[in-house]
Design a protein that fits this description.
The complex is a heterodimer of chains A (about 110) and B (about 110). Chain A is mainly beta and about 110 residues long. Chain A is built from no helices and eleven strands. Helices cover about 0% and strands about 50% of the residues of chain B. Classes of the chains: A mainly beta (about 110), B mainly beta (about 110). The interface between A and B is medium-sized, with 22 and 24 residues.
């Protein structure tokens, strides 16, 4: 049973465009929803995270939108740049529990 | 402050051989974990530890052992390597299981 479903698997966006990656979860007890960014040959790094008491969190060009009733959250990358080309993972956890990761989205931003 | 370090970076094993993947962190984090990353599968939790002397199984623990004798170190042992264990292994640490800091990974090939 996949507890966190991520889509799309891959995404190609033109420079300056908006990249949108979606995740859906099943466990309503989840209370922490981070996004990780991974460059080739490197470990994942925390990009931005949200808790369910807010519907949106923005850090620079990166925004998480959270829909508690739909059990969905998404990452928006505004003004996408070639340097944003990476694999992005959503994740979820409850309390002090372990992170459950989505399967990842490979983003390519074309110049 | 080196963060999370992993050794070796690359390793090739023959089926049946054993080895230990090393992980160390210098951030005084209580929580440490091991993940494996396979194409299209995301990050799957192997084992984790909430403090020295305490370990527990994650989603895919078979074929792996761990121990946590100090706060800083969390080695992962492959008892009898199998081709199915060919993967990239990441160690992570955090104050809690939320925001995790990942190491650079170990790429393991079992022939």
């Amino acid at each position: 049973q996949q507890q966190v479903k991520q889509s799309p698997q891959s995404l190609i966006v033109q420079k300056g465009g908006i990249s949108i990656i979606n995740c859906a979860y099943e466990n309503t007890a989840f209370d922490y929803f981070p996004w990780y960014q991974q460059f080739p040959g490197k470990g994942p790094a925390l990009l931005i995270a949200i808790r369910p008491d807010v519907s949106e969190k923005k850090e620079g060009r990166f925004t998480i939108s959270f829909n508690k009733s739909a059990k969905q959250f998404s990452l928006h990358i505004m003004d996408s740049q070639p340097g944003d080309s990476a694999t992005y993972f959503c994740a979820a956890s409850k309390g002090q529990g372990n992170l459950i990761f989505g399967k990842g989205t490979k983003l390519s931003v074309k110049p | 402050n080196a963060g999370v370090t992993q050794t070796p970076k690359f390793q090739v094993l023959k089926t049946g051989q054993s080895m230990t993947l090393q992980c160390a962190q210098d951030m005084n984090h209580e929580y440490m974990s091991w993940y494996r990353q396979d194409p299209g599968m995301g990050l799957r939790l192997i084992h984790y530890s909430v403090g020295a002397g305490i370990t527990d199984q994650g989603e895919v623990p078979n074929g792996y052992n761990v121990s946590r004798s100090t706060t800083e170190d969390f080695p992962l042992r492959l008892l009898s390597a199998a081709p199915s264990q060919t993967s990239v292994y990441f160690c992570a640490s955090s104050y809690t299981s939320g925001e995790q800091y990942f190491g650079p990974g170990t790429r393991l090939t079992v022939t």
